[in-house]
Design a protein that fits this description.
CATH topology of the largest domain: Peroxisomal Thiolase, Chain A, domain 1
Number of strands: 13
Strand content: 15-25%
Number of domains: 2
Radius of gyration: 20 Å
Largest sheet: 10 strands, mixed
Mean pLDDT: 97
CATH class of the largest domain: Alpha Beta
Shape: globular
Distance between the termini: 16 Å
């Protein structure tokens, strides 16, 4: 059941702990360089975190940045960079036909925590509560801030889908293009998670937060026998999506084609994953793309570096691809940490250059592979050059309350 009309990626804008453009993060991924550093959240000790440094002032004045949110700053930067990367000029576009679809894990926690901390200094007198709090904390804030910044008047919303949100934002953009609701979509996900102490405290209470150790860059250890939890990260990635005929009509460079997707729900637990449902989501994505498991060259694993999560995802991969899985498997959370709503989009973006350079970036920080996570072509610590250039990538993203979202992208090929 292949997608018609065909949907292609023509631009990428991103913010990550490894850098703020695709070439830079690709170099970091191939070099095995982690961007995780130390952070001291409010009320807590030091913890490892994926921290982003990017030039907010490139697209926002100080006043605009101060009035809005960190997630909004990330969305503005990623969206404007995606437009620039696609070689589009906003002034020449019908901005009523542009849609913005941003995946988020949560939104508003940062702003509420900040306001509570602020009024504490005034005896909890709510007259000191910011009148900006409501627009800062509503769920559509990051997408809405991008609309305000770029003067985009088409539809915008945020897709709340836990840690599957980056994939879900991408899927939502494609669906709106297929329906003819928009002619251009900016789609993906963002995360401001490191700025809320509550998410650190909650993962700590679940015994799911990786300690800082001697070297925070080695804290996130997907598939390693000694993995011991999540490293929280901020970041973002938005793709420029177009219908193929529109992209070809303007002579756009095409980075990849979105071939298929699958979304489903475990309906079994608040936090523990269900490999049977994860396998089903992968099969749904393959079916929509009109592909078989043997057609996939790279599997980008969700791989949170948790004791429960990693082996269950590997079980799901084995269920779909067989114990002798012929696809190369990698994971990116050793580099970034877990960027929550942005994770799926960032991890997909980092693999796209494989279509041009022929390399598969590794999962890093694996010193002692857990046998329960072993796959025949798991790429460990060093990049691999397959015998042929990769042509198709399957990208896994799974989230709390059992949401699973899988995308399949391919190197663009004319039929």
């Amino acid at each position: 059941m292949q997608i018609r009309p065909r949907i292609v990626i023509t631009g990428v804008g991103l913010v990550s702990p490894l850098g703020n453009d695709l070439a830079t993060i690709r170099n970091g991924l191939l070099a095995g360089r982690s961007g995780v550093r130390k952070l001291t959240p409010r009320y807590m000790d030091e913890w490892p975190a994926g921290i982003c440094d990017f030039p907010v002032s490139r697209y926002q004045s100080r006043k605009e940045a101060r009035r809005g949110t960190r997630a909004g700053q990330i969305a503005v930067f990623c969206g404007r960079e995606a437009i620039r990367d696609a070689e589009l000029e906003l002034s020449r576009l019908d901005r009523s036909r542009i849609g913005i679809f941003v995946g988020i894990t949560e939104h508003g926690n940062v702003e509420t925590e900040n306001e509570v901390a602020n009024i504490k200094d005034y005896g909890y007198n709510v007259k000191y509560w910011s009148h900006h709090h409501n627009p800062r904390s509503i769920a559509n804030n990051p997408a809405g801030e991008l609309c305000l910044n770029a003067g985009i008047t088409g539809p915008h919303w945020c897709v709340g889908a836990a840690c599957a949100a980056g994939n879900c934002g991408l899927i939502q953009g494609a669906q709106q293009l297929i329906l003819g609701e928009v002619d251009l979509a900016l789609a993906g996900g963002v995360s401001e998670s490191i700025h809320t102490f509550g998410i650190f405290a909650s993962f700590l209470a679940q015994n799911a937060l990786a300690p800082v150790g001697d070297d925070p860059a080695k804290a996130s250890r997907p598939f390693d026998r000694d993995r011991n939890g999540i490293v929280i990260a901020e970041g973002g990635c938005l793709f420029t999506l177009e219908r193929l005929e529109d992209a070809e009509g303007r002579g756009a460079k095409i980075l990849a084609e979105l071939l298929g997707w699958g979304i489903n729900t475990d309906a079994t637990d608040f936090v523990l994953p269900n490999p049977e449902r994860q396998a089903q989501a992968m099969r749904l994505a393959l079916a929509r793309a009109g592909l078989e498991p043997g057609d996939i060259d790279i599997i980008s694993a969700h791989a949170t570096a948790t004791p429960e999560g990693d082996p269950k995802e590997v079980d799901a991969i084995r269920e779909v691809f067989g114990a002798d899985c012929g696809a190369y498997v990698n994971a990116a959370k050793g580099y970034y940490g877990h960027a929550m709503g942005a994770a799926g989009a960032l991890e997909l973006a980092g693999n796209l250059p494989s279509f041009e350079d022929g390399l598969v970036h590794p999962a890093i920080n694996i010193n002692d592979l857990d046998p329960a996570c072993a796959l025949p072509r798991l790429v460990i610590n060093q990049p691999v050059r397959p015998g042929r250039f990769p042509r198709r990538i399957l990208n896994n993203s799974f989230g709390m309350l059992g949401i699973n979202a899988v995308t399949v992208v391919g190197k663009f090929e004319k039929e």
